[in-house]
Please model this.
Amino acid sequence: MKALRDEFGRFLQRYKFGMDEIVTKLSILREEFSEHEGHNPIEHISCRLKSTDGVLEKLDRKGIEPSFDAIRSSITDIAGVRVTCSFVSDVYRIVDMITAQQDVRVLSIKDYIAHPKPNGYRSLHVILEVPVFLSDGPVPVTVEVQFRTIAMDFWASLEHKTYYKYDKQVPQHLVDGLTEAAETAARLDETMERLHREVHGHPAPRITQVLEA
Model:
């Protein structure tokens, strides 16, 4: 059991290193913007690594074979990074920059900003693969990166806390309230984006080149 635990620990460590790589890339962009531009598109960066129990629970829930190969190919959110931006245009701008780096491979993009979930959830999810250079050579590691605005992040936090409190059995009037709040947050983002463009004159970049790749 100790040997198995140690092996699983080494397996998860690779994901931590991959997560650190992405955080470093984003932190470099953030510092560069702080030094050379009047507007920093990255407000906050956070990250989390799934625990051993969390990975095993997801394996069981999805009926996935408990092997390292199965985990590697089936679970893409072991390492997660969240990037909070001021404006929607900042989200697409940073996604463009991080996905354009030569050692970053884009595995998938789910744009819940352009196409929100039925409950109003908005965010842009990108699954990236980055090389991690270990003592015995490089290994590719998958990292999920979520990009959202401050308003989207506030709503998602409230929604998560609500569903946790009610053990996912949320009363309908609260579900309706959350949906209404999501629409309010989206309107706030639109208004702030319009004001931002009037002040700075920046067009909103899109990630069509990534989506078409």
Summary: Strands lie at 42-49, 79-85, 105-111, 124-134, 137-149.
